[in-house]
Amino acid sequence: MDLKENQAALILEASSDGEVTVDVQAQNLQGFAIALCHALAIKLVNDEQLQGELMAMVEAGEQPEKPAE
């Protein structure tokens, strides 16, 4: 995937034993997009309540709503 200058991406990797790692990629390492992705990555890794909510959603098979265009 090629990212534009104003884009950043969270990359989630799940191991066979259920461990999830989070990585951030971007072309511009000083931009707003990467700063936001870093903040989200930190929140994903450190917020146990958020992790629980996300796992409950995954286990329930919920799909996020598509954003309005």
Overall description:
- The protein is of the alpha+beta class and 69 residues long.
- The protein has one domain.
- It is 41% helix and 20% strand.
- It has two helices and two strands; from the N terminus they run E-E-H-H.
- It has helices at residues 32-46, 48-60, and strands spanning 8-14, 20-26.
- It has a two-stranded antiparallel ribbon.
Strand and helix layout:
Blueprint: E1 8-14, E2 20-26, H1 32-46, H2 48-60
Antiparallel strand pairs: 1-2
What descriptive keywords fit this protein?
alpha+beta, two-stranded antiparallel sheet, 69 residues
Give the overall average pLDDT: 87
Total number of helices: 2
Q: What distance lies between the first and last C-alpha atoms, to the nearest angstrom?
A: 23 Å
User: Spans with pLDDT under 50 lasting ≥5 residues?
Assistant: none
* Relative helix content: 40-55%
- Secondary structure class reads alpha+beta
Radius of gyration: 14 Å
Tell me the major beta sheet.
2 strands, antiparallel
What is the N-to-C order of secondary-structure elements (H for helix, E for strand)? EEHH
Strand order of the largest sheet: 1-2
Shape: globular
State which percent range the strand residues make up.
15-25%
> In total, how many beta strands?
2
Number of structurally distinct domains: 1
Summarize this structure briefly.
The protein has 69 residues and is an alpha+beta fold.
